[in-house]
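Q: My collaborator sent me two sequences in one message, no labels, and asked for predicted structures for both. Can we handle them in order? The first one she listed is below.
A: Yes, handling them in the order given. First sequence, followed by its structure tokens:
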Amino acid sequence: MPTLHIQEIFSQFQYYQTRYLDILRDPALYYQSVEDAHIHFSIVSEEKIYLGDLLQLWLGDKWTEHQVKILSHADQSLWTHLTECWHNSLFLFAIERKGLFAKTSALAWSTEEQQVKQISLEQTLPYYCHYLSLERPKRLS
């Protein structure tokens, strides 16, 4: 299968939302490559992220603008978090932390601007843990 591009996914996002469960069950659909989609967590891991991974992370509200706001304001009260707007206009697809004490950057698709944006993240571990917790179909050989 050809490599997907982020802008292609979002131009047909309704289609992917509708086919979400089919994609999660079918290894051929799940493991479609997405250009530039990866997570690099310090020296521990560098992993390619596939279409099924991204859909689980986005639709599960784990790699979205909402999650970025919660994690970057962890010291604020719970009430503030609960009253925030749950509108997501950023969908992360690549996270990099090059060294143990290096800043973390991410690539995200902006639905408002219809383009890829680079943003800074204060934390990496929660995103990496969300990635590790994904359930995947067995890969076909």
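Q: And the one she listed second?
A: Here it is, processed independently of the first:
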Amino acid sequence: MKPFTLTPVLRYRQQLEETAALRLAKAQREMQQKREQSEQLEAQYSRLLSKLEEDQSAGITVDNLLRYENHIDWLKQRKDELAAQLKAARENVRKKRDIAIGRSRDRQVLEKLKEKQNRAWNLYIEKKEAAQLDEIAVLSHEPKHDDT
């Protein structure tokens, strides 16, 4: 009896691997977006500090100085938030990558098992065929008995 075919299982494993790869790509895009947001915020922060320095050297009112300080504090908080989000996005990408690699390994193991199983089945069939051919050869060489 032919062993269980692994084709449906392999097809399912392939789907799991493709889904994991899509999720990894999505997580990488999200991480890239967070990185870009962080870089933009850092540039905005640097521009604000240089503008504050220019205004201070030219003279600045207390109200404007307070506005600068409030805006700088808000940007620092936003930078911290984005840094935490970026760290979480990196961790998410790492997890998704590990899952994708695991799915790929699972599929590869099953493919090797299928190949091994097919080789064993083909060897079994070849042995059966050889035994049948041997039996046919033996039967064809036996002397024929006539009952006359």
